[in-house]
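Hi all, long-time lurker, first post. I run a small reading group and we've been trying to get comfortable going from sequence to structure in the token notation. Rather than ask abstract questions, I figured I'd post a concrete chain and ask someone more experienced to write out its structure so we can walk through it together at our next meeting. Sequence below, copied exactly:
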Amino acid sequence: MAHEDEDLDALVTELNAGARRAPDVDGHTARLRAWLEQTAERGASDLMLVAGAPPSICVDTLVTALAEGPLDSEEIADAVLPAVPPHARRAFRTTGIADASFREATLGRFRINLHRERGQAAATIRRLPSIVPRLDSLGLPESVDLLSHLARGLVLIGGPTGSGKTTTLAALVGEINRRQAKHIITIEDPIEYEHTHHRSIVEQIEIGVDAPDFPTALRSALRQAPDVIVVGEMRDPETMQIAVAAGETGHLVFSSLHTTDVATTVARIADSFPLERQNTIRQELAMALAAVMTQTLMPRAGGGLVPAAEMLMVSYGARQHVRKNAVQHLHQEITITRKQGSFTLEESLARLVGEGLVDRKDALARAVHPEELERLLQP
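-- Answer (accepted) --
Happy to help. Here is the structure in token form:
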């Protein structure tokens, strides 16, 4: 009992201290601040710290070394660990991997992934925007706004790492927050965009700080009378099943997956379950799905990046294909439901080429159906 009391006292102390407070940046962490200042000044998206290499930044997908000698593992750990919340330090020391967000007093918020490579400490730190972007500022097709008007169902946002899924989710929440009086709960690891309350009440749950894991946080959220639930990422079958059930029973649920197109995004859900459960999950998923969108970032002509996307507004035909595990027919469903707001990747790419934002050669290289894109690009 004494040991349990000590654990409780330690937890209360940590909570009262504020797990998300800004770190004291002095000593070793002054070095981290100097690197972050250069990251911000040069418009970089990421700072990468790897033993044996100089600190490096990523600007428009190109990696550039800073003017400093190679780092060793101890230098990286000393610079980074004091800046992250206690739960991330514990996770890194016990598992070798940790995700967290932190605030630097003058530079804003950052997301950090601490990990080990070849037995040595390493980190990737991403600069987080200070405001939630408007959906119409992202360069996505206009019909993506339909997702923010849905009343219920499961909405999946797919795409590779770094494709802007989290930004799109935040922008959709922002649209709902500004227009509707809803109760919105986001579950994230870590929190990237901080929402203020507008017409809606927005609660943001951070894994490791406010809840131990996604399934626990999601089950708890369902008891809090939510209208909209955002699951930052569905990483395990338990989270997927709870999210599907929530979408099927009247909630509007948004989540993201690391996938490349609409068909693989839908398939990923059922394929994550044991074989004997997959058919049941497909039946439930078919009823819960409201829309599926995937996106990827393309090099913008003249510099920078711009998103290309595809979206399926789920109708009766798509539900039948999901039930029968015939997801290869979902591309055809996109073309059938254009009037409902669906669009193909090739249509998105053709628009970007037509507006002079993306080079024709780059678009053809990224298209899943290049012959369709060729047809759309004909004068």
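A couple of things your group might point at:
The CA atoms of residues 262 and 292 lie 6 Å apart.
The chain has a mean pLDDT of 91.
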